[in-house]
Design a protein that fits this description.
heterodimer; A: alpha+beta; 14-stranded mixed sheet; 25 strands; B: six-stranded mixed sheet; 7 helices; 10 strands; binds adenosine-5'-triphosphate; binds magnesium ion
Chain lengths: ~800, ~220
């Protein structure tokens, strides 16, 4: 029986080459896209799962409100980890990481520095929490002593080649020497810690023993004992805060916890499961840029839509053809064939088509995986060896076949033999409605994707062209300027003298990604905690404001002829507003040190700088202050138009001369700026890609349907032509019905797209408004595409000799 | 005035070439009623289709009221057909999705006749064919005779100079057939040129002239009256 089914199915597929091609092509595209997206989603979901006991590892999150600022941090105070460990037996192990940023590293004896992007201090207990195996060294003691470090296999190879690095030393930033006491396997790619290749012993860092409950700098991880419930363990944080933090508040702030809370301030700790960090954590002081679960959802939905569109084609073409196959059904039925046999026959055909498509789809996905990896910025490997993959693939093939084939199968087999043989099968009955709604669904998805693409690109364009309050174009940034050591200022001054250079400034702080520090200030000696204001405190030089073309709103910038400016401060409009002075110029504010060993500093407000976007446009502009202090991280150089290459070469030559052996890294500021929105750009590209694919699949279906309609209406077309219809009359006649469907899909799709894109735009504090013309444009595009697709068949039908059309009856 | 000279029509399919018309010369005067007869497959329909500008001859010339049309494209032919030629087919060829009224209205729509005039003309044609009472019916709800009367109404509604009829009584019983022939005669009497293919000697009796075809050639012509 099955053999018979298969034989006839195969014959039918080959007989109907055109429709089989449309079916298989569309479905392969849909399956390939769906497969790629599934691989992406699986990849995103697999982060941090490869560690032993990953389900028992948690990180501490801190939520703080203080001094008019809300902070969501991925870091905790230094004493928290081991206080919890000591007080609560539920903790099996605890460890901290303290990010130390990038570093210039070289082997002793070498003159070339290499740049390491991420160096962090780690407690010796790191390996108790994270099961990263050591290739050499003892995991229990490797990070115990000061000035020791563990490096990854990658870095061992990078610095020592085939030599054994154990006991050898590395020099960091030209001044700190560390002895290697362990080499660990590279942390898996699918981990939020994957960039960690150099860990310094925490004992080297005195901050780690500060016992400062008010300063949050340490990524804190717990391995909880088996059976410990996250929620009930989190309750203990309240106890810890009452016991330790409040003591600290009393000592340092001279206030009680209750007073703090009354003024709206709070501090809360919670746990986030290790496996949730990648997709669900987007806090300040994350150790790596995490993914975004929103995009996983969006992609999931897009994948389902694409597969849906492809299945719709399949169903549509099959039911459309049903008229042609109705005779076959009638004859078979008249000959005594049972309905179940017919259903079986059609389903076999559908599943066979679906498997053919699956094979092509897998080939297509495999072939385009590098492109997709590029697009999604991933390193996904095709899971050829995975049994689960093949099982799911086969299951998908069967399900898609059954799903796509079931409607036509039951629709066709339910024909009554007599009506069918009389040739009176209802063309616009139930089948017509379903077919029409399916076409509407397809175009709705396409319209939504087009609108989505339009909105994303408009927002990106808005970001690109927005007045930011500072000059980002034609600004060259030389990184790692601390490698110049004492010559940093001389370098900056000499660069400013070069032709084509307008100005230069030396600071670690820029409105594009760079260092950040926020401090709490109090106005005029009032140390009441409810008057505190939390703001960025950036150390800059005299030329900073002019180089970045910042505008002064009130007062004046730093000037060399006022020696007292070293204790002056310039605040931005937001800070001025929070401080609430009618005239802030000349007022004094105190930079509060949350550490009894250090002394508070008093600053006099010299001026107010107009607000500029120093964070991404996702955030509102917060409070910020500038002070005159040495800070040697970066040199920003504003250039005249013209030949940059020459200038860059000159700057590099000067660098080589003043900092021999140090890597010369530079970037243009607008590149750094654009990088902040890379994920949005990527989403935009992905949307375009899938919009094109969805339109392509939809058009394949529409093409088939219009061919079928033209075929079905051949006689009518002939008659109309005999009666004087022109070619354009006929094209209009055949296209009109499809156009109505496309219009309907625009009407349905637009509000959904509007809602979705508005939600996306809310991620930005500064965003465009969705305008009506975006919908109009998307609609027009869909209409034009649909028209082109349909008119190909219509024109063909319209140009046919009417005699031929009449003959077909 | 219709003038054809040395007309050939060859159909080539993958395997065979069929010569449907093999050197036809023929003149039709204004207001004439010509019947074309001959055995099945001799090329009658082919000839009529070419005369009606639905198809091109493979060879030869065709002058339609002073215009050479033999080599015209479908687009140009459609332009000439419009309003000049009415068709009546053996199988009626009404559009199933349209009512009697809408079917008859169709040629006027394509001629862009203004609505008021259209209504007047459609109603006149339907009244003449005695189909007014059925104007809102669909073709499947009509008898064969009624369908053919509708088709004739549609053929005459734009008052064409020429009506071509391919076996207009072929699917009808003798009573309905007689009725259709009377209608055609009346139209002819009112000045319309009629070219009709028929197998029925009785029907051919209504014509002024009978052209006999055999194997794509005219074998005899007989003139009545
Ligand atoms: N489109 C076509 N392709 C190939 N051959 C054709 C085509 N149309 C007609 N013929 C052939 O041309 C010849 C004439 O056909 P035509 O339809 O003119 O015959 P007829 O005289 O109208 O016959 P009948 O009385 O049966 O209607 C026939 O042999 C037919 O097979
Ligand atoms: Mg014939």
């Amino acid at each position: 029986m099955l053999k018979n089914y298969l034989k006839i199915a195969w014959r039918n597929i080959r007989k109907q080459k055109f429709y089989s091609f449309l079916n298989i092509f569309g479905l392969s595209l849909g399956l390939a896209s769906c497969l790629l997206i599934t691989l992406y989603v699986v990849d995103e979901l697999s982060f941090d799962r490869s560690f032993d006991h990953a389900d028992r590892i948690y990180r501490v999150n801190s939520d703080i409100r203080f001094g008019g600022a809300d902070m969501k941090l991925a870091v905790a105070p230094d004493p928290l980890a081991f206080t919890m460990m000591k007080d609560y037996p539920q903790v099996e192990a605890a460890t901290r990481l303290r990010e130390d940023g990038s570093a210039l590293v070289r082997r002793n004896g070498s003159t070339e520095n290499l740049k390491e992007e991420l160096v962090a201090y780690a407690d010796s207990t790191f390996f108790k929490v994270f099961s990263v195996p050591l290739v050499s060294g003892d995991a229990r003691t490797a990070l115990t002593n000061p000035n020791t470090m563990v490096i990854s296999e990658r870095d061992a190879k990078k610095y020592f080649g085939s030599e054994n690095p154990m006991g050898k030393t590395l020099l960091l930033d030209n001044e700190r020497t560390f002895t290697i006491t362990g080499v660990m396997k590279n942390i898996p790619d699918h981990s939020h810690l994957s960039d960690l290749h150099m860990m310094l012993s925490m004992s080297t860092n005195p901050d780690s023993r500060d016992n400062n409950w008010g300063s949050h700098n340490f990524l804190t991880y717990f391995l909880l004992k088996e059976g410990v419930d996250q929620a009930s363990f989190e309750k203990h944080f309240d106890t810890v805060i009452e016991k330790y933090t409040s003591l600290w508040v009393r000592q340092i702030m001279n206030a009680t916890m209750a007073e703090m809370r009354k003024s709206g301030s709070y501090i809360k700790y919670s746990l986030i499961p290790l496996t949730d960090i990648h997709l669900h954590s987007d806090r300040s002081a994350e150790i790596s840029t995490n993914g975004n679960v929103q995009y996983v959802y969006i992609f999931g939905v897009v994948a389902i839509f694409l597969l849906g569109i492809a299945c719709v084609n399949f169903m549509n073409l099959a039911t459309a053809r049903s008229a042609n196959r109705a005779k076959e059904v009638g004859v078979r039925k008249a000959l005594g064939s049972k309905r179940s046999y017919l259903v079986g026959q059609f389903l076999t055909e559908a599943v066979m088509l679906s498997f053919l498509s699956l094979i092509f789809g897998i080939i297509l996905a495999y072939a385009t995986l590098p492109l997709f990896n590029n697009l999604a910025s991933k390193q996904i490997i095709f899971p050829f060896g995975s049994g689960i993959f093949w099982a799911i693939a086969v299951l998908t093939g069967i399900c898609v076949g059954l799903l796509a084939g079931s409607y036509p199968a039951f629709f066709l087999s339910a024909f009554k033999p007599l009506t069918v043989l009389r040739g009176a099968i209802e063309h616009n009955g139930k089948g017509g409605y379903l077919r029409n709604s399916l076409v509407v669904f397809q175009f709705m998805v396409s319209v939504m994707l087009i609108i989505g693409t339009g909105v994303i690109y408009n927002q990106l364009n808005y970001i690109q062209t927005k007045k930011l309050g500072f000059e980002k174009d034609q600004v060259l940034i030389v990184k790692n300027a601390y490698a110049l050591d004492t010559k940093a200022r001389a370098f900056k001054d000499e660069v400013a003298q070069m032709p084509n250079v307008k100005r230069s400034t030396l600071s670690s702080f820029l409105p594009t990604p760079s260092s950040r520090t926020d401090n709490t200030f109090f106005p005029q000696g009032q140390l009441q905690q409810d008057k505190g204001i939390n703001m960025q405190k950036w150390a800059v030089d005299y030329d900073y404001i002019k180089t970045l073309n910042l505008k002064m709103k009130l007062g004046r910038a730093f000037q060399k002829d006022f020696p007292s400016d070293s204790s002056g401060i310039i605040i931005n409009e937001t800070a001025a507003k929070i401080l609430g002075y009618a005239n802030p110029i000349g007022k004094q504010i105190y930079d509060f040190e949350f550490n009894s060993n250090k002394k508070d500093k008093t600053y006099t407000i010299l001026g107010v700088v107009s607000n500029f976007h120093f964070e991404s446009l996702r955030k509102n502009i917060g409070a910020l202050s500038l002070t005159l202090q040495p800070s040697y991280g970066l040199v920003a150089i504003s250039l005249e138009g013209g030949n940059y290459i020459n200038t860059i070469n000159q700057v590099q030559a000067l660098w080589k001369q003043m900092a021999p052996g140090q890597p010369f890294n530079y970037r243009f500021m607008d590149e750094d700026f654009d990088n902040v929105y890379r994920s949005e750009q990527r989403i935009g590209q992905i949307f375009i890609t899938f919009a094109v694919i969805s339109i392509l699949i939809g058009c394949l279906g529409l093409f088939g349907l219009s061919a079928y309609t033209a075929e079905r209406r051949t006689k009518e077309i002939g008659v109309r032509k005999v009666l004087g219809a022109s070619v354009s009359n006929i094209v209009a006649l055949l296209s009109k019905d499809f156009l109505k469907l496309v219009l309907l899909s625009i009407v349905i799709g637009s509000p959904i797209a509007w809602y979705g894109m508005n939600t996306w735009l809310k991620e930005f504090a500064y965003h465009i408004d969705i305008a009506w013309w975006m919908f109009a444009l998307a609609g027009l595009l869909a209409i034009v595409i649909a028209l082109l697709t349909v008119s190909f068949q219509s024109i063909k039908a319209a140009l046919m000799n009417p005699v031929k059309s009449l003959k077909s009856e | 005035m219709i003038k054809i000279a040395n007309m050939h029509k060859v159909f080539s399919t993958e395997e065979v070439e069929t010569t449907a018309l093999n050197g036809i010369d023929m003149d039709v005067r204004d207001g004439e009623f010509v019947a074309i007869m001959g055995p099945s497959g001799c090329g009658k329909s082919t000839l009529l289709n070419i005369l009606g500008l639905l198809d091109n001859p493979s060879e030869g010339s065709y002058e339609f009221y002073g215009t050479e049309v033999a080599k015209m494209s479908e687009r140009q032919r459609a332009q000439i057909r419009k309003g000049n030629i009415g068709f009546v087919f053996q199988s009626f060829n009404l559009i199933d999705e349209l009512t009697v009224y809408e079917n008859v209205e169709l040629p006027l729509l394509y001629l862009k006749t203004p609505p008021a005039e259209r209504k007047e003309k459609v109603e006149a044609a339907l009244t003449r064919m005695n189909m007014m009472h059925r104007r809102n019916h669909f073709p499947q709800q009509l008898s064969g005779g009624q369908q053919q009367r509708t088709a004739i109404a549609r053929a005459v509604v734009a008052t064409p100079k020429t009506i071509l009829a391919d076996e207009p009584t072929g699917n009808l019983d003798s009573k309905n057939g007689e009725e259709v022939m009377n209608l055609l005669s009346q139209l002819n009497a009112a000045g319309t040129t009629i070219l009709m293919v028929t197998h029925s000697p009785y029907d051919a009796g209504f014509a002024h002239r009978i052209v006999n075809l055999f194997d794509g050639k005219i074998v005899t012509e007989k003139v009545h009256v």
